[in-house]
Amino acid sequence: xxxxxxxxxxxxxxxxxxxxxxxxxxxxxxxxxxxxxxxxxxxxxxxxxxxxxxxxxxxxxxxxxxxxxxxxxxxxxxxxxxxxxxxxxxxxxxxxxxxxxxxxxxxxxxxxxxxxxxxxxxxxxxxxxxxxxxxxxxxxxxxxxxxxxxxxxxxxxxxxxxxxxxxxxxxxxxxxxxxxxxxxxxxxxxxxxxxxxxxxxxxxxxxxxxxxxxxxxxxxxxxxxxxxxxxxxxxxxxxxxxxxxxxxxxxxxxxxxxxxxxxxxxxxxxxxxxxxxxxxxxxxxxxxxxxxxxxxxxxxxxxxxxxxxxxxxxxxxxxxxxxxxxxxxxxxxxxxxxxxxxxxxxxxxxxxxxxxx
Amino acid sequence: xxxxxxxxxxxxxxxxxxxxxxxxxxxxxxxxxxxxxxxxxxxxxxxxxxxxxxxxxxxxxxxxxxxxxxxxxxxxxxxxxxxxxxxxxxxxxxxxxxxxxxxxxxxxxxxxxxxxxxxxxxxxxxxxxxxxxxxxxxxxxxxxxxxxxxxxxxxxxxxxxxxxxxxxxxxxxxxxxxxxxxxxxxxxxxxxxxxxxxxxxxxxxxxxxxxxxxxxxxxxxxxxxxxxxxxx
Lengths: 357, 232
Ligand SMILES: Nc1ncnc2c1ncn2[C@@H]1O[C@H](COP(=O)(O)OP(=O)(O)OP(=O)(O)O)[C@@H](O)[C@H]1O
Ligand SMILES: [Mg+2]
Prior knowledge:
The complex is a heterodimer.
Chain A: H1 2-10, H2 12-50, E1 54-58, E2 70-71, H3 72-76, E3 82-95, E4 101-109, E5 119-122, E6 130-134, E7 147-150, E8 156-163, E9 167-168, E10 171-176, H4 178-186, E11 196-197, E12 199-203, E13 216-220, H5 221-226, H6 231-263, H7 265-273, H8 278-310, H9 321-339, H10 343-348, H11 351-355
Parallel strand pairs in A: 4-10, 6-8
Antiparallel strand pairs in A: 1-12, 1-13, 2-11, 3-4, 3-7, 3-12, 5-8, 6-10, 7-8, 9-10
Helix pairs in contact in A: 1-8, 2-6, 2-8, 2-9, 6-9, 8-9
Chain B: E1 4-13, E2 20-30, E3 34-39, H1 46-53, E4 61-66, E5 69-70, H2 76-86, E6 87-90, H3 102-112, H4 119-128, H5 144-157, E7 162-166, H6 174-190, E8 194-199, E9 210-215, E10 218-221
Parallel strand pairs in B: 3-8, 3-9, 6-7, 7-8
Antiparallel strand pairs in B: 1-2, 1-4, 4-5, 9-10
């Protein structure tokens, strides 16, 4: 640390350039992680709000709630600690009297069941033509009392309340009654046993024990989320980009330190001639990498936090600080691994050549 | 027991056509409190002799004992430890770490080795060498002679039992050169070290207890220079 730190102090420009590069790379890692996190949130946060264990869909629906149809009769036969019927339809909504369209996920739920939205503003829907919508729609100018027209349906919904954290598959959720969804989907409501819904959400620690008929399937909630269209490919893409950045960091810092080490061959040789061990020199190179990486990560973190403050609400970046700290640590670790490229060079330095007497 | 003892040590560089005998089989020993000069022309094998004595390279034949331990039987790691603990090098080219101030050159040694000089001893050494005012400077801001004096201070700082100096006065004016020699002589006596100085400057041999000449790798004691003046 002593050699490392004194060298950094005496060649500030050289080392600030390295720290600068590390800063940009850690900033990129942090923003990508924020973006990955943000996109994941927009895909799944409505489902996360349910804190459910599984969802029961029709066998032919291949994990997609929109494609699943279950009769209310079948739904009532499901055992399980807590169950909640859900109906869903993807639609384009439009504020009546304007041309502004927005794609949305309309979810029909039963008032009082655990998947009913927590109203953060206004009140819960009471009638068939009332709705509680994701508060992200406020950014589009929607407010309490507005009428929403639904594409391919004469049904209109009036906003009576807003709820927080209600995004599903990158779209805002519009919560309403099951009857309203049936009206939009099939033209009329049918709450008898033959009436159709999308599926049943279950909250029960022992999901395996739930028995369903052959026409239905129990899907653990995490695999339901993984099957949200686009969710898994997006997640893999972001993860790949972040991992690849780590490889780049490792190689870049490895090259930097290798060049610096080559540059210092004669100094290291002289120190070895005096009897200073290779181990001491290697530790000092690793310590130096550690210092540079810590500076880079801290600066990158600072920029990320500042960026977070100035981010427009619409930007799909969600900074999860524990994850950023985790990635920061990996970043530092990976940089230190890069510095190990120089170990062999240091070990091989011949003190005799260095003193050249 | 001699601090340094070379038994039948020889060194041959290269093989076949390019073979160079840099050191013919020699016997050599240096005792505590002895300041020894080795004088010879360029290319005569002085540096070869010194680097073998200091465990920086292995001889082709023979054994090198430092305080009774045979260096030729040790691996590089152990030899490095002996260099660190027992030997002080003053090399032909100045060998300071460019990014450490003079002060920090000493602190580095404190980090790798115990039982170095204490603060008073160091201050005295620095003022004896006339480099006390240079403590905050980097090597790049020192003159050649100042660098050399810092290097000498560094070598003495670790309290080695064997001091090996390759042309320590090469970049000094004669006044400074004599001063450096008297410091080396003083340290040798007071701290009971064995000191070997390789040089081509005949004027320095007055400070030495023994003088050897080396010509074409052949080391011979210079008769009649078992100087009596150092005895007093
Ligand atoms: N690594 C080597 N490979 C081959 N020959 C070498 C090597 N090192 C030294 N020599 C040869 O060995 C002989 C002695 O070299 P050495 O460096 O010991 O001389 P020196 O007395 O220190 O000279 P100078 O006063 O110029 O420093 C020279 O002929 C030199 O060319
Ligand atoms: Mg030489």
